[in-house]
Design a protein that fits this description.
Layout: E1 6-13, E2 23-30, E3 35-39, H1 46-53, E4 61-66, E5 69-70, H2 76-86, E6 87-90, H3 102-113, H4 118-131, H5 146-157, E7 164-168, H6 176-193, E8 196-200, H7 204-208, E9 212-215
Parallel strand pairs: 3-8, 3-9, 6-7, 7-8
Antiparallel strand pairs: 1-2, 1-4, 4-5
Helix pairs in contact: 3-5, 4-5, 5-6
């Protein structure tokens, strides 16, 4: 695994229900392999930015380049292939499938991609052991604590060995002690695997421990 460079150039994004754009001529350059915190007030566009980079949300104009290649837009099939190949995402809520065990949830991204191999199962086991949840493999999501669910989501985001890791408030719903434990594990994984990581957070102490802080407060980033 190795991180990929990210370039956002003159991004313009507007929702039809809003009078003003979320982004207007917004640009951002991120060095490959770096760990960046994205901060700013609620509604400023942090999650929207991650969704555009992941090809989940469309934008009106501008370009998003990952490793100098354009992120697909208005092409669901190409966007899905791009995410499968390059993107690992962790959302504000765990979104674990309740009827499947933790191991099955972790392997699901690889099954959907149609390329599950024995080496992939070994990779998931290694990550689970590293992050300390290997004993949870046969449990159902409803039996997990918030901290355990957060750990599972971090591993799921790395299941396909992504080069770009997009994390939306991975510690936002945790108490301060558990948030610190999860972030320390995140740091260890980032240092070992070196993906390019964008971490949305409201926790300024966590943001300060990242290599770079990206603060969305410019007049071109309009409150949602």
């Amino acid at each position: 695994m190795h991180g990929l460079s990210l370039s956002v150039r003159d991004l313009h994004k507007r929702y039809t229900t809003l009078e003003y754009p979320v982004f207007k001529n917004f640009s951002l350059e991120v060095t490959a392999g770096s760990l960046c915190a994205i901060v700013g007030p609620s509604g400023i566009g942090k999650t929207t930015l991650l969704n555009c980079i992941a090809g989940i949300d469309c934008w009106d104009s501008g370009t998003i380049l990952v490793n100098k290649q354009s992120v697909p837009k208005n092409d669901p099939e190409a966007s899905a292939k791009y995410r499968c190949k390059s993107i690992g995402m962790s959302f504000q809520q765990p979104h674990l499938l309740p009827e499947f065990t933790i191991e099955e949830n972790l392997l699901m991204p690889l099954r959907i991609a149609g390329n599950l191999k024995k080496s992939d199962k070994a990779w998931i086991t290694k990550l689970s052991t590293t992050i300390g949840i290997n004993e949870l493999a046969n449990r159902l999501p409803e039996t997990l604590s918030g901290g355990q669910a957060a750990r599972v989501c971090l591993i799921r985001a790395l299941a396909n060995k992504p080069s770009l890791w997009l994390l939306d408030e991975p510690t936002g719903n945790l108490d301060s002690k558990t948030a610190e434990e999860v972030f320390r594990l995140l740091l260890n994984l980032h240092c070992e695997l070196r993906p390019t990581t964008l971490l949305v957070t409201h926790n300024i102490n966590i943001a300060k421990r990242c290599e770079r802080i990206i603060k969305l407060e410019d007049k071109n980033v309009i409150q949602l």
